[in-house]
Design a protein that fits this description.
Elements: H1 2-21, E1 34-39, E2 42-48, H2 53-65, E3 73-77, E4 81-84, E5 106-107, E6 121-124, E7 137-138, E8 142-145, H3 152-177, H4 179-187, H5 191-210, H6 219-227, E9 240-246, H7 248-255, E10 271-277
Antiparallel strand pairs: 1-2, 1-10, 2-9, 3-4, 4-8, 5-7, 6-8, 6-9
């Protein structure tokens, strides 16, 4: 444990020195809008959640404007998801690397705890945390979760890991605040003082973590992930704004296609037309 922590502190020290120089159930009774995606593999109908209005309205707007028409499912990963919506994919060559196209804006994250990454949900793609700490969504790219099934024991282990990661994150933040002190102690080769500081910060981290409720999968999530499957590791990181209501067989057909470089299907799979169902 102490060796691991010292490595963490050392990594933080390096950063410091560099910086010195570098389905949910439909509880909302308001009618939900549906959008039909006609693809070269069949039809998919998605229903948009009213609880995520910015994403809902944007998806409707783009569908009506024809932005999705002729775009490819440019990234497909078995037992995970299928992704589409890159405008640059409409006329892309067979060798083009896709996934960076956009419509010139992002959408603020709309995380709703009751929506989780079970099989069949519709969610927004986005840039990574390193360049997008607010986790704002792409203005156009989206994915549909296929995922895989998990045993309950796996899910409980995953929950324990998330709680441990929260403690680690708190510890790292506390260590950053003591960076100058850590630097002085390491320069003086005072390992005893470093261990004492580490133990103190570790105790503070555990105490602070206990002030919040520990992460746990809900009974609904445990049932869904163990029966139909999903991608639980994405929860709380990407905005979920809808779900497939018909055409999951089409999603599965797309998921099973053979892919090449950058997970792009070898044979183009295209959204022929997106239609808002009034």
């Amino acid at each position: 444990m102490k060796i691991s922590k010292l490595l963490t502190i050392a990594m933080l020290l390096i950063s410091f020195l560099a910086s010195c120089g570098a389905g949910s159930n439909q509880n909302n009774m308001e009618k939900r809008t549906q959008v039909k995606l006609e693809t070269t593999q069949g039809e998919i109908v998605v229903e948009l959640y009213n609880e995520t209005p910015k994403h809902r309205d944007n998806f409707i707007k783009l569908a009506k404007e024809g932005v999705y028409d002729s775009t490819l499912f440019h990234r497909v990963i078995k037992q995970f998801m299928i992704q589409a919506g890159d405008p640059e994919s409409k006329n892309a060559s067979d060798t083009a690397t896709l996934g960076s196209g956009d419509v010139g804006y992002t959408i603020p994250a709309e995380f709703v705890p009751k929506f989780f990454h079970r099989k069949g949900v519709l969610a927004a793609a986005r840039m990574g945390d390193d360049v997008n700490p607010e986790r704002a969504s792409s203005g156009c790219q989206f994915y549909i979760v296929t995922g895989r099934k998990f045993r309950e024991a796996q899910l409980l282990d995953m929950a324990a890991q998330k709680n441990n990661q929260r403690v680690e994150a708190i510890f790292n933040e506390l260590a950053r605040k003591h960076m100058k002190e850590i630097y002085k102690l390491r320069k003086a080769k005072d390992d005893e003082a470093l261990f004492e500081l580490q133990d103190s910060l570790e105790a503070q981290a555990y105490a602070m973590a206990k002030e919040e409720e520990p992460f746990m999968f809900t009974p609904e999530q445990l049932t869904a992930y163990s029966t139909i499957g999903g991608a639980p590791h994405l929860n709380g990181a990407y905005t979920i704004f809808g779900e497939v209501v018909t055409g999951m067989e089409t999603v599965e057909k797309i998921e099973s296609t053979k892919t090449g470089r950058a997970d792009r299907p070898i044979q183009d799979i295209r959204i022929l037309k997106a239609t808002v169902l009034e």
